[in-house]
Each structure stands twice: as structure tokens, then as C-alpha cells.
Design goal:
By secondary structure, the chain is of the alpha+beta class. It is built from seven helices and 19 strands. The strands form two sheets. Strands 16-15-12-11-9-8-5-2-3-19 form a ten-stranded mixed β-sheet. It has a nine-stranded antiparallel β-sheet with strand order 4-1-6-7-10-13-14-17-18, with no helix packed on it. A hairpin with a 3-residue loop joins strand 13 and strand 14.
Length: 313
């Protein structure tokens, strides 16, 4: 009998459900290295021309790079190691311009929202950056976020505060925040920031979307995601979306075992992964009469009585 792998099943679900996925948030127009996309619960290899959808997680390896051109004309480029989660795209209508919300885990990122009406919100564990009609370079590590504004003005706020609470940094300015400290700004970027910035970010981001407009490329299936790869997202700020996405994977014994071992940080799954309680042992049966006891003759009933006994009637 042919055995169906979990990855094969995931790919089948992806192909069947592809038309039902979220709206396109943009297109991959530049790839260097071997970046991947986590779509659903499986990894796919990225190539130029692949459309990025709401909910996609783009993983960029060390020294790898990709460029995402947004549907509103803006562009975002990431140099790894790092990951970028396409959280959402606000639909464009007559009342509100589109707004792409992206979540960066670490790495270098440059965005350019120069087209009129183009907006972007970049969230990180340490702060949120919002911009419209601007270009800036960001660098995120485990304990600090820093940004240089190339053109326009960009607002940076602490991750735990409302977006409106931040202060704007204008062209040529620099803003940074270390973990546990407020946002600080300076008139220019430090020499260390400039020296370590990717060389490609010295120039404007190229626009290449028109080259792939007529042909829609699909990401190439790679493999199923493991629990360690999913865990940072299952415990992150978008955990609700990822918990729902990965819950079917609990049918995979290896994934379920790992989830059970991490039940303290994944309480939503406790009822699913908890081992069923053992039923109490049934009471022992009553003692049975042995064969010898069955064969033992019974004493005959008395037909006489003692003088002091009342005769039975």
C-alpha cells in the first residue's frame, strides 16, 4: 500500500486551496541565495515572479536577499538572516489607501513607499515603523532596532505603544531603540551603521514588477515545516493565526509529541494533545464456587426433632 507523507498531503491541500488563500500583497522581483516561503504548513522555494499572499512567511538565509514589490507600488528588500511575515493588506477602497503590514524578526530591511498613497507598517519585537511616501533602511537585532531615513519622514514607536504615540524622523535623520529603553534620535546615522549597511541599500530599490506581470510563477514545493520552525510563530504576536494554521498538524505524531512537550507555552492545544486519562480498573469478580464444592454432598434434611424443639408444621 502506498504511504502518503504529510508533506505530500500539505502540497495537495495547497494546490486545491490556492484560489482561497488571502489576497496578493505583492510580488517577489529579486532573489539572491535560497529564500523560502512558509505557506500553510509547508515550505516552498521562492523565485522571481512569485506572488506573496497574506499570511506568507518569507525566510531569508544568511547573506541571502529578496525584494518584495507591493501591490500599491511600494517596495521592500530584506537581507538575511531574517524572516518577514506578510501579516495583512488593508483592501484599497475609495475611503482608505492600502496598507501593507509586515513583521520583521531580524536582519536588514529597506523600504520605499514613494508612489502617492503607498503606505507600509513594519512591526518588530522592539518597535513599529510606519511610512508613506518615504524611503528608509532598518536594522534589527535581538536587542536593538535602528533606522536611517533616506527620503520623506518615518514614524517609529515602541512595540507596546499605539502607532500614534511615536515621533517622526525626517530625511537624513536616524532613530534607534534598545530593549527596555525609549526611542532615541540623532541628526545623522552613526558611522558603524553606515559601514555595516548592505551595499545594495546605498542605491534606490529597482522596480522590476513589470517584467513578471504577464506570467504568474508558483513557488516550488520543498518540505513540510517542523515544530521547531513553527514554534517561534506559535508563541509570537501573531500566535492566534499560526495556532489555527498548524492545528491540523497535530495529527502528525512527531508534531503532536513536540507540541505536548511544549504544552506550557501552547495552552490552547492542551485539550487536544493531552493524553487520555486511564480508566479505573474494574472491581474483582465475586469468588466462584470450586468444582469440589459443587460436588460435595449436602446434608439430608432432618425428619426428627428434639423434645424441646417445636415441631415444624
Amino acid at each position: 500500500m502506498m504511504k502518503t507523507s504529510w508533506f505530500g498531503l500539505g502540497c495537495l491541500i495547497f494546490l486545491v486551496a490556492a484560489p482561497c488563500f488571502g489576497a496578493d500583497i505583492g510580488m517577489i522581483t529579486l532573489v539572491d541565495g535560497k529564500p523560502k516561503v512558509l505557506r500553510g504548513t509547508a515550505w516552498f522555494n521562492l523565485s522571481e515572479g512569485v506572488r506573496v499572499r497574506d499570511g506568507d512567511t518569507l525566510d531569508v538565509p544568511d547573506k541571502g536577499q529578496l525584494q518584495l514589490e507591493l501591490t500599491d507600488g511600494g517596495a521592500v528588500s530584506v537581507v538575511g538572516p531574517g524572516a518577514l511575515y506578510a501579516a495583512s493588506l488593508t483592501p484599497r477602497d475609495a475611503k482608505q489607501a492600502s496598507l501593507a503590514e509586515l513583521f520583521l524578526t531580524r536582519g536588514w530591511l529597506k523600504f520605499d513607499t514613494k508612489p502617492p498613497g503607498a503606505r507600509v507598517r513594519i512591526r518588530t519585537p522592539l518597535g513599529t515603523v510606519m511610512a508613506s511616501d518615504a524611503a528608509a533602511v532598518m536594522h534589527l537585532t535581538g536587542d536593538a532596532i535602528e533606522m536611517f531615513v533616506e527620503t520623506g519622514s518615518v514614524k517609529m514607536t515602541e512595540a507596546t505603544k499605539p502607532d500614534a504615540a511615536g515621533s517622526e524622523t525626517k530625511a537624513g535623520g536616524y532613530a534607534a531603540r534598545a530593549a527596555g529603553k525609549p526611542v532615541e534620535s540623532a541628526a545623522r546615522a552613526p558611522s558603524v551603521f553606515v559601514a555595516t549597511m548592505p551595499r545594495d541599500f546605498m542605491d534606490p530599490l529597482p522596480r522590476r514588477a513589470s517584467k513578471f506581470a504577464s506570467a504568474r510563477a508558483d513557488p516550488a514545493p520543498d518540505r513540510d515545516a517542523t515544530f521547531p520552525e513553527a514554534q517561534p510563530w506559535l508563541t509570537g504576536p501573531y500566535r492566534a493565526a499560526f495556532m489555527k494554521r498548524f492545528e491540523p498538524k497535530l495529527a502528525d505524531p512527531a508534531f503532536r509529541t513536540a507540541a505536548e512537550a511544549n504544552s506550557k507555552v501552547l495552552p490552547e492545544w492542551n485539550a487536544v494533545v493531552a493524553k487520555p486519562k486511564a480508566e479505573p480498573a474494574p472491581p474483582p469478580p465475586p469468588p466462584r464456587e470450586t468444582e469440589k464444592e459443587k460436588e460435595k454432598p449436602k446434608a439430608p434434611e432432618r425428619t426428627w426433632h428434639w423434645p424441646w424443639e417445636t415441631p415444624r408444621k
